[in-house]
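Input/output pair, single chain:
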Amino acid sequence: LQEMQFSFRALPYMRQMGARAVHTFDAVSALPAILWWKPRQRGSIVVELHGLVSAQMGRGGPVVHSLVRALERLVLRRADRIIAMSYSQRDFLVRVFKLPPEKIEVIWGPVDLHVFHYREPEEASTFRVGYSGNDFSWQGVDDCLGATGLLAKERGVEFVFLTGSGWQTELTGRNRVVRVAAATREETAGWLGRCHVLLSPRKGKAAD
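Output:
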């Protein structure tokens, strides 16, 4: 819970700055802002939900899991806006936390616009489908691999996986699949720029 400790320490600086909005990258780290900053400053809180801590935590047992889930429910219900990584994640949040769908915006992971320049891929006979990320159980890589199997005989389709050093899923031997391991930011931008569509199959349910 280092992120939440950082948020507690940041509260005095936020008051000094007169901040009108707070943007956090998970629900638990937003708790201090929800409880102390928002009631006093009357500002807006945006939670960019890369994942639920309660769904990804590997320790603590059912009691701690239930406590963290309750804290996430409190934060997400009081936040002004939520950014989800996929539509399936948004559906999960609506179903489990009883959140209004219009409160949740689906936006694919952020990029550095100085490095990644949006443009149409070059005309080619191959339609490239890109994925960039890790292969934790909640990322939805299994859905990507299911698609590669269904389209394995389609010569005009190619899947590009840009993976980090911790990648465990075996990709060798799959037709029309390219793996680019441990690419630099510039190389990643170049590869994704050559793709016609980018996948964000992240599962909201994660490890539940």
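The mean pLDDT is 82. The helical segments are 2-17, 31-41, 53-56, 61-78, 87-97, 141-150, 185-193.
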